[in-house]
Amino acid sequence: MRSGSGWPAGLAVATALALAGCSTGPAPISAGGPAGEPGKGGTVRVLSSTAFSHLDPAQGFDAGVNNFYRLVYRTLTTQRAAPGKAGTEVVPDLATDTGRPSDGGRTWTFTLRKGPRFQNGKAITSADVKFGISRAWDPEIGIGSPYAKQLIAAPKGYRGPYRSKGSSPRIDTPDSRTVVFHLKQSYADFGSAVAQPVFTPFPRGTGARSEFDKQPIASGPYQVAAYEAGARIKLVRNKFWSEATDEVRTARPDGFEWTFGLDPATIDERMLSARGEDVNAIADAIQPATISRIQDKETRRRTLSGLMGCTTYMSLNTKKGKLGDVRVRRALNYAVNKQSIVNAFGGATKADPATSIQPPTISGRKGTDLYATDGQRGDLDKARKLLKSAGVSKGFSLTLDTREAPVMRATAEALQQSLAPLGIKVKVNIIDTATFYEVIASPAQQHDAAVTGWCPDWAAGITFLPPLFDGRNIVSKGNQNLAQLNDPGINAAIDRASALKDVDEQNDAFGALDAKIMRDAPIVPLVYEKSVNLVGGNIAGAYKHPVLAGGIDFVSVGLADPDRRA
């Protein structure tokens, strides 16, 4: 999924080491975090600088919103609510199991649990599952997770349930509790794919246009009681949700309240002091300058720290000018001083230099570095030789898209400084954070390059490389292949790896494919980001989740004393 700027995906430091078998360097902050089980009741407050992109799960697909979705929506399967390696496991949610493949993995059957209901009291049926998933084909709505359209067979020209009435994707519903998917080809990990938000069920006939961006229909333990776009969201209990039907969510708080648009420095000050209602708050990762102020025992007890499961990179649009030459793209990979990017993120506590497309937490990752330089500080001589061979020894100009967030501006400036000695003039184009991914995912609005990122939808190689580099998935809206790379050899290698029926073999194949793709240099890997979060003194059950891009797992967090206000 696209990485966000508010709630990064994260691991506790010890967990990251256990999963990746690598060292992330010294960290001044321990994994830490509040212990204990939450009580029942009270309201958890969330402080954030950035609003959610979309409340509609067919549209949102960034790191800031997917964790939120698990409070409001349910899917056939979902990630286990647990820290560490246990959290990488996909478990049943609305379904009784993680799916039963047949026909060599081209057909998958799921049986729904008895009892789950929407917030209007209506039982969730197989027809609702089919309808909710069908919305992914709508050209205006289906701009989020691509897995439904990529995997499930559908009639040619199908445009979703509102525009293509009388036809549908190949999803059978032989009875109210059975859902049968017919896929375009074998897919070994389809039981994990259906955990994506785009597989959320909805009552038939609902949700046209922007309806769910204003007022969602909940299937999870909470429903939206109030929403002011860009300002606040209030969740209250969905009275028709039953813990007896849900093995993942504990739903201990009575509700959640988000406040958006806050200055990051203000958030840090509030979380350091954690007074008044902020004792019941969780918040964005703190700013680099704040880390040195975490000194006393009480504040450290409220600290969560860890390596994110994402890669931040500079995408290179292979259809734009000089970037169409692979020698130029390779030159950029050699030229970038990645240590300066680490510094832009706040130093070693906040980031490690990235050497490959996949982050350390992906199963099967090889971690090869085709453009290694001394200390990851760049090699201008190698870059100059490549530019000379491409006939652009005097440099050229490019436009770099980036988000409004301070660390993204600093990253763009560091890239400017890395490329300036080569005569490459970088014009930085700042885009509002809330709309950034929607803009750069529209090829007509793309520029030459972008500072962006990607987080795994689950801890498997198939969630990283195909969405970003399969040329057959390039679309006019919701496009994730920002490089617009359409290489028949890479497409075929993706097909071969995807067709493997053993998930471990598949991950190994994608690990090898990482280096093959980097020979085409469609991106410049920049950093593997880390995050440090502070929580209020009354917060209990908080931990960093190894896969969910929300960082602190919302479905398990709550208040130690639900009646405490200060």
Automatic annotation (TrEMBL):
<protein>
    <submittedName>
        <fullName>ABC transporter substrate-binding protein</fullName>
    </submittedName>
</protein>
<feature type="signal peptide">
    <location>
        <begin position="1"/>
        <end position="20"/>
    </location>
</feature>
<dbReference type="InterPro" id="IPR000914">
    <property type="entry name" value="SBP_5_dom"/>
</dbReference>
<dbReference type="InterPro" id="IPR030678">
    <property type="entry name" value="Peptide/Ni-bd"/>
</dbReference>
<dbReference type="InterPro" id="IPR039424">
    <property type="entry name" value="SBP_5"/>
</dbReference>
<keyword id="KW-0732">Signal</keyword>
<feature type="domain" description="Solute-binding protein family 5">
    <location>
        <begin position="89"/>
        <end position="473"/>
    </location>
</feature>
<dbReference type="Pfam" id="PF00496">
    <property type="entry name" value="SBP_bac_5"/>
</dbReference>
<feature type="region of interest" description="Disordered">
    <location>
        <begin position="87"/>
        <end position="107"/>
    </location>
</feature>
